[in-house]
Amino acid sequence: MKEHPIPFVLGILFVWLPLLCSSCGRFQGGSTTAPESTRGLPAEDAVARVPVGQVAGAPTLSVVSLSIANPHQDNPQAIKQGHELFIKMNCAGCHGYNGKGNMGPDLSDTYWRYGGLPVQIYMSIRDGRSNGMPAWGVALPSDDFWKLVSFVQSLGGSVPVADYRHARQGDRAGEQVSPNAQGNAQQDSPPPIVTLPTIAPLPSTPGSVERPNPSTPLKSGAPPL
Amino acid sequence: MRTCFVSLSGSLLSPLALCAEGPMSYERTFGPAVDPITQLGWGLGIISLVVIVVITVLLLGALFRSRAPSADPRGLAVSSETGGMSWIYIGVGISSVVLAACMVWTLTTINAVARPLSSPALTVQVTASQWWWAARYESAAPARIFTTANEIHIPVGQPVRFELISGDVIHSFWIPQLAGKMDVIPGQTNRMWLEASRAGVYRGQCAGFCGVQHAHMALVVVADPPETFASWQDDQIESTRPPVTADTIRGHEVFQTHCAACHTIRGTTPAGIRGPNLTHLMSRGTLAAGLLPNTRGNLAGWIANAQSLKPGARMPDQNLSGPELLAVTAYLSTLH
Amino acid sequence: MQEKNQVESGKAMPFLVREPKSAIIATICCAVLAGTLSSCDHAQKPAPEPRIEAAAGRNLTGATFDHSPGDPAGEWRSQARDYANTRYSTLDQINVSNAKTLRIAWTFSDGTQGGHEAAPLVVDNTMYVVTPFPDVLYALDLTKPGQPIKWSFAPNPNPIAKGKACCDTVNRGLAYSGGKLIYNLLDAHTVAVDAKTGKEAWRIKMGNVESGETMTMAPFVIGNKVLVGNSGGEMGVWGWIAALDVATGKELWRAYSTGSDEKVRIGADFKPFYDQFKGKDLGISTWPAGMWKHGAGTVWGWISYDPQLNLVYYGTSNPGPRVPEQRPGANLWTSAIFARDADTGMARWAYQTTPHDQWDYDGVNENLLMDLPINGQTRKVLVHFDRNAYAYTMDRATGEVLLATPFAYQNWSSGFDMKTGVPLINKDKEPHAEIKLTNLCPPDIGGKDWQPSAASPRTGLVYAAIFNICMDVTDHKASYIPSTPYDGMEMHRYPAPGGNLGEFMAWNPVTGKKAWSIKETYMTMSGVLATAGDLAFYGTADGWFRAVDARDGKVLWSQMLGSGIIGQPMTFLGPDHRQYIAISAGVGGAATVRADVMAQRPAGFPPGGNTLYVFSIGGDTLTAEPGQSTGSSSASGVPSPTSKNGAMR
Description:
The complex is a heterotrimer of chains A (225), B (336) and C (649).
Chain A: H1 6-22, H2 44-47, H3 60-64, H4 76-88, H5 91-95, H6 118-127, H7 142-154, H8 164-167, H9 215-219
Chain B: H1 2-19, H2 35-64, H3 85-114, E1 122-129, E2 132-137, E3 146-149, E4 151-155, E5 160-166, E6 171-174, E7 182-184, E8 190-194, E9 200-206, E10 218-224, H4 226-237, H5 246-258, E11 286-287, E12 292-293, H6 296-309, H7 322-332
Chain C: E1 17-18, H1 21-32, H2 37-44, E2 58-59, E3 88-89, E4 102-109, E5 121-123, E6 126-130, E7 137-141, E8 149-153, E9 175-177, E10 180-185, E11 189-194, E12 200-205, E13 220-222, E14 225-229, E15 240-245, E16 251-256, H3 261-264, H4 282-285, E17 303-306, E18 311-315, E19 336-341, E20 347-352, E21 367-374, E22 377-385, E23 390-395, E24 401-406, E25 413-417, E26 422-425, E27 436-440, E28 454-455, E29 462-467, E30 469-475, E31 489-495, E32 502-508, E33 513-520, E34 529-531, E35 535-539, E36 544-549, E37 555-560, E38 570-573, E39 579-585, E40 611-617
Parallel strand pairs in C: 3-34
Antiparallel strand pairs in C: 1-2, 4-40, 5-6, 6-7, 7-8, 9-10, 10-11, 11-12, 13-14, 14-15, 15-16, 17-18, 18-19, 19-20, 21-22, 22-23, 23-24, 25-26, 27-30, 28-29, 29-32, 30-31, 32-33, 34-35, 35-36, 36-37, 38-39, 39-40
């Protein structure tokens, strides 16, 4: 029988309307995803318990803070952003664009003046070191420090966090140990490993952390001060 | 039938009428770099509309035209058609003429916007980064070269050359009322020009999806009369003066420690280029690439809570105390 | 050992002037040395070896020098030995006929890491050695067997400086004046030490190490003034040269390399030869708004002085950041040569060797002051081997370029416009941000780096250790964040055509041609010493120390040392009237730190070191029998006699 003209007209409208409306400029690009935040990062007071050097008497608890894991470890997005920061914050100027050292030390090997555990690298970035490494302190958010640590870890430098007890004595995980090597240790048996609660890595896509979006009141021009 | 046509044309044209005044509207334009395209767009649109109407009329006519009952009892046999070839000859003939005319018009238009009538006296190098715009005003006198962000001033009635480079991914530079789109591609410099024939504020927008905050990557082009533009330019070249009051001095200190690795304020020591140049921040109408009106309250909110306002942006939330936030806002508010 | 002698000889030289120079020099020497008994003793003694009369006075260019300040022939009181920066010694006990019998006489290890770039000084039978960071100063008693330490001085500079120095924690040496040793500490202080007691006379903070400012250059003494400058061209510091009072350390004047004419000390007397250097406040107006403030132009190279014109000459470093797209404009006064009034510091003329330096070709290299016959008249010139691979012969009174020809392999420039004094740039060798530019020659360290050349009035030639290197470079735009590099150059260096990284050459500054050259597999980054024995000494980064016939480039003697050589050879007369040659072996500096490339550190490349080697004919020196005391009675630093090499026969 006869074709009805209405679908034809609708078809035209479907093609035209979106094109026309796209030019309206009324769109607000309403991204409602929540931001990257400091949630999911190790607490700063836990990081603050990381000893700079050896601990007198080697109390177990204070050293346990060395086992703080990098929340962004092996996160490709974080490694990429860390690499970006490494260049843009002039880190590459000292440590080389490939991280293999230049004015500053090589970051791609397992020799570390101030400790190669992720949290020690974090502290070197945040607090600086006495031979010229500047402290980034509040110039960057702590999240960025962890991203930089991710990048350094991706170079193959650093010491795996699981090896933190070995790393204290410059050992490599799984290496051969003389049965008499513990002769001078204070305890016959190794101290119990106490780790901080494991921290879940951040998802790779920024913004998927659940968080209310408080942008609406601010956009109206009345931000809380 | 009549009702049908009215409703059809009404549906097609009403969005045009509604949208013509929007800031991103390309139906009304204000510069020689884009006006010929607009005319062409309207012209081709109207021609297309006429073609649609004609074709629709013919199609509907054919649909509704009642056929004479067939003599063949089976009713399905197709007999050889002897007439009606003239419809095809006329149709193809008219289409060819119209298409050829459209082509000539299009080529003429492309030629007309390819280059300005006079060589641009001003060159602005625009760097698109996630998710903001840096603009460096070039000059033969190096000391008159300066950098600003997200708000580009141009003199009315003068062509301006734009050099577009990318700081990271592919973006697209689009100020619909002044020029067509131009992609911004890493590793190369794309060049274009535009000219505003009327003073005013024109909104621009990244027009190539570039990441999570693509939608909040706007910019503003302000076309000023040449004298106003010249004085704006002179003001921008000036460096800032050191802060004098106690709270702005404190705010300057906060800025140095928290902000200066990424932002430049000319006249102070550090000069970060990762974020927008803030030397004359208060001369701009918006914050965060067109996200917020530039008010003191919005500024404080943006500093304290950037990740809530523009999630994923490179600007981190600043963990500032209340007095620190007030001080740094007070300091930034002096940067006229 | 790869040695190819390319002898062009003097046949083609149009200025083959024969002058009885040696006689004149001998007379001058004796007059100058009149006050120093031991030296004069020697001068009156018959020469122990036959003189090479055949070559005496065979001056290929007609060059003459002013050897002010006329230090005693047996001493070495400044890094360049004379104001003219010739590094030429009139001693000739060691000469072409006996150089092959050079042997190690004694050595001294200072135990520090880092590149050893300084020459020791010898004053009053005491040798003064300064180490790289921590910048310890040692005084060695040359009158005693074993050369014991008389005293040592540890200034304890701030270790932060180690992370701010771009090119290793080097120190380029001491200056001596009025019983004081003056040198710069890596943490941007200048210190003066009493030469007799080893006690600090004064110390003055000259810059801010936390913002990346360091000091590595050797101070330069003129009368009662000492000139010093800063380092940190890669850190966005504000470059300057300053004059201090030798007695007190008080700053007399300071001239910056960018900024207003007042800061640059440009006044009515400033008469540059070329138009592009004329105008008001060019140190501001040739930069994008405000960028001159961290535009570098540091003064980390050598200073020379013409006592007749009373002008000092020195060069300024690269502009900051090293990414040229961030700083359109000529970027004055970076990568430039300044002539300044020695008393007031006011600029007399300036000349930018590399306008808008896009490749890190600093202008800091030494300026040798010579008097050359050019077009029939004697011109007071300076000879400057720039990192940009052009050798300049310039009128040092006016700043006019008389000659500019490449001395090393380069492809950044297609020629030189003598009319405007500007090198012509190959557009395809201009770097653009984030785009890799391949095969750029020379690289950032230039056709020749800071390592100073020497000149001999006997041959009229200039001797320089140069490079044959290219690089791939990718620029990354850089933020200026004080205390971090303001740099942005990602580099990969490799040998230029020929495959050799180094070369030692004799240069004719009148014709702008090499007289001869010796190719070296590894970098040649040592200073050069020229002597009246017609010898030129230099070292290689892999550790060969060589004596070469200055007339024809024949290698007469080579010795492999314990580390690569980037130091400066010097010579002196011991209390035993023997001539000694000294050189530090301790590779480092730009030869390794900014390598970023295996070509410069292949397998077999030596590690760092810290040994000062002293050579004599046959290795003869003071000896001590077992049990005989060699120690000094001084309170500070009594070394164990066994800690040092004793006599070697």
